[in-house]
């Protein structure tokens, strides 16, 4: 998979991709993440990428020209499955969207800033608009990092058996069951006996039961 991220703050995005699973996915050649500094595509000598909004009102708007030049350049180089705009008024990200996006070949992710982007960008270039929840961030970069992390870890070959995504919360609309490790007893607090019984059928049943119990208690909406 190739991901092209369009941002005015590439430095803000670099660290999440420079460690752990996201780094390994790139080193293994499974995903190719490219950052594009929108300011490099500014069409004026002050390197502006935003301007006052027509009709007046507080807040700057990201201009269409630099975005258009960059997106057209990228589209000339390859086909894109999705051109995603990170915005608080987009569709709320969920595991279903992550699963779907993890199987595509090329995506562009545009990080929103200021009051947002000129509506014509959304009308003519954007194919999907994504929010990561009902609260407002200073910009789309952190949201883009969240989106990319949630997608990349699902691509086959990125996770190994120990970190498998199949048993993640949400994968079957259930929260994950509780987990324990050694010691089996600490301060008199014991691990559920079934987990140390060696009876794998019983263990599976217990985990499924606990997953349902936890989901009913914390996220009954997932069971509807
Ligand atoms: Cl994608 N962008 C911003 N600026 N705020 C958000 C968001 C995105 N998702 C939730 N809040």
What are the salient characteristics of this protein?
about 220 residues, alpha/beta, Alpha/beta knot, Trp Operon Repressor, Chain A, five-stranded parallel beta sheet, two-stranded antiparallel sheet, 9 strands
Short description:
The protein has 224 residues and is of the alpha/beta class. It contains 7 helices and 9 strands; from the N terminus they run E-H-H-E-E-E-H-E-H-E-H-E-H-E-E-H. It has 2 domains: 151 residues, Alpha/beta knot (3-Layer(aba) Sandwich); 57 residues, Orthogonal Bundle (Trp Operon Repressor, Chain A).
Q: How would you characterize this protein structure?
A:
- By secondary structure, this protein is of the alpha/beta class.
- The chain has two domains: 2-152, 3-Layer(aba) Sandwich (Alpha/beta knot); 167-223, Trp Operon Repressor, Chain A, CATH 1.10.1270.
- 32% of the residues lie in helices and 19% in strands.
- It has seven helices and nine strands.
- The chain has helices at residues 10-14, 20-27, 64-77, 95-101, 119-124, 141-152, 200-218, and strands spanning 2-7, 32-37, 50-52, 60-62, 82-92, 106-111, 128-131, 185-186, 189-190.
- The chain has a five-stranded parallel beta sheet with strand order 2-1-6-5-7. The chain has a two-stranded antiparallel ribbon with strand order 3-4. A two-stranded antiparallel ribbon has the order 8-9.
- Helix 4 (95-101) links the parallel strand 5 (82-92) and strand 6.
- The longest helix has 19 residues, at 200-218.
- The radius of gyration is 22 Å and the shape is elongated.
- The mean pLDDT is 95.
- Residues 86-88, 112, 131-133, 135-137, 139-140, 143 line the site of 6-chloroguanine (6GU).
